[in-house]
Amino acid sequence: MRSIEHLSQRGALRATAACFLALVASCHSHDDGNNIANSGPPAGSSGDFLFSGDNGSLQRGEFFDCVARLNNGNLANIDTWSIVAAPASSGASLTSLGAADSVRFVAGIPGFYAIQAVDVNNLVGTYGFSVENDLASLMVVDVIPGTDSSPVAASLATSGNADLFIAERIGGPSAPQVIARANRAGDRVAFVGDLPYKIQDMAADDLGNVTVIRTESSLTAALVRLDRDLNEVATFSAPDLGTTAWRDIVAMTRSGETLVPVDLEGGSLLRLDAVGAPAGGTPEQSLIALGVPFADVIDVATDIDGAAYVATDTRIVRVGTDGAVDSLYWQPQDQTAIRGIATDEDGVVYVALQDADGGQCGSVRKLDWRGTQFRRIIEFSDGSEFAARKILSPVALGVFPDGAWRLYDDIVTLNPSFQKAAWILASEPLITE
To answer: I need a labelling partner for 2 at 20 to 30 A (CA). Which of 104, 183, 188, 239 fits?
Structure first.
């Protein structure tokens, strides 16, 4: 009998390529303790095919794509795919991917499942796995009423010392904006209201210093540095780039450098030091190539090693500290529009998307260091009025170094008559102080 395999993307994110190839060659299910899909009852281990997939863990409504191969590695010509084991009224489904060798499984309610494939020569393979419902760990931790749906109404930033910075506007487009420093549970610790400007984006370093960007006629006026108590740092002054254009997007490295997309040398990231001066001495010596068209940039994030991730609404590129661009880092394979990105210190990249795939309206994806998606999250719950609600319109995303994350989601479109909550701050997992 031949084994059946579901390849997990969970596991040590900094594993070497050699370790990954060894995993593929082993032809056994992989479970590092976090892999929900391969936990629980033993996976099916007999049949005439090898199965591989691209998601490491599943909860209700999530999916993975299975590909069937013969024992010699050739793609199988599958005649019939079917779910042969599932909980009653599971709601799970199989969807054709347009090729005989592959199918998409969309998870139903928690329980044990088995997928069976039969090829044109009547060879049979079965893969068994568990689906767990961990919605309880994806919780509403903050509700902000009366906010409009303009993207500049909300922005999030996180620091290495567990600060959560929130910029929000309550009461519609003409209302003044406020900025707050909150703890991990979302409770405001410091607060500044009635700001004389509108924050378009902001980012924080490991010490809780915050750079905010606003729409102004010069970069000097657009960039403002705040300390952890939200006081403006008078000594910070960005250079005036004259007629050079920039995007109202800002990122910070963990050591305190500020990155701003500018329209120089075909599109670059301008690196500024702690006082706003060009990090390389001059603006021309402080540029890193964007890797995508300047006008298409919608967000930028940095990882613990200083690499930058630059997002358009359709793809993400990785820019190393040496300026090398990995233009193939990640591109969603379904009908989506990227809305925001962030990273944790383990190298995981988090992506907030507006997507219509599988009937969903929004999601958060997790990518490993290779740019491989291993998690898709589509729902949140607080156990009461927000039980099992889908992510609808993600606007802003912030991630703590340990991987706990916060999301602003515009849910008012789900029920326009329900005015209690226009923005929800969700977390996985819920962590309180």
So the answer is: 104
Taking alpha carbons only, the member of 381, 327, 371 closest to residue 350 is 371
- Do 332 and 338 contact (CB within 8 A), yes or no? yes
Per-residue pLDDT, 151: 55
Of 336 and 417, more confident: 336
- 230, 190 in Cβ contact below 8 A? yes
Q: Which residue has the tokens 């960005």?
A: 238
269/106 Cα distance (integer angstroms): 39
Q: What's the CA gap between 27 and 317, in Å, rounded?
A: 31
* 271, 249 Cβ separation under 8 angstroms: no
pLDDT at residue 241 greater than cutoff 90: yes
Q: Is 33 exposed, middle or buried (0-12, 13-18, 19+ CB in 10 A)?
A: exposed
Query: Tokens 């789900």 map to which residue?
Result: 414
Q: 146 or 94: which carries more pLDDT confidence?
A: 94
CB-CB contact of 363 with 378 (8 Å): yes
pLDDT tens-digit series, residues 204-228: 999 999 999 998 999 999 999 999 9
Residues 118, 109 contacting (CB under 8 angstroms): no
Q: Are 393 and 362 in contact (CB under 8 A)?
A: yes
Q: Which of 34-48, 174-188, 355-369 has the lowest mean pLDDT?
A: 34-48
Q: DSSP code of 42? A: P
349 Cβ contact list (under 8 Å, min separation 6) = 301, 303, 309, 316, 330, 341, 342, 343, 366, 367, 371
Q: What is the DSSP letter of 75?
A: B
DSSP structural state of residue 47:
B
Residue 28 structure tokens: 């056994």
What structural domains does the chain harbor?
45-162 (no CATH), 238-398 (2.130.10.10)
**The tokens of 295 are what?**
């006008």
- Which range, 169-178, 317-326, 407-416, has the best average confidence (pLDDT)? 317-326
- Indicate the SS3 state at residue 358: helix
Q: Write the CA distances from 385 to 72, 147, 240, 417, integer angstroms.
A: 52, 19, 49, 14
Residue type, 399: V
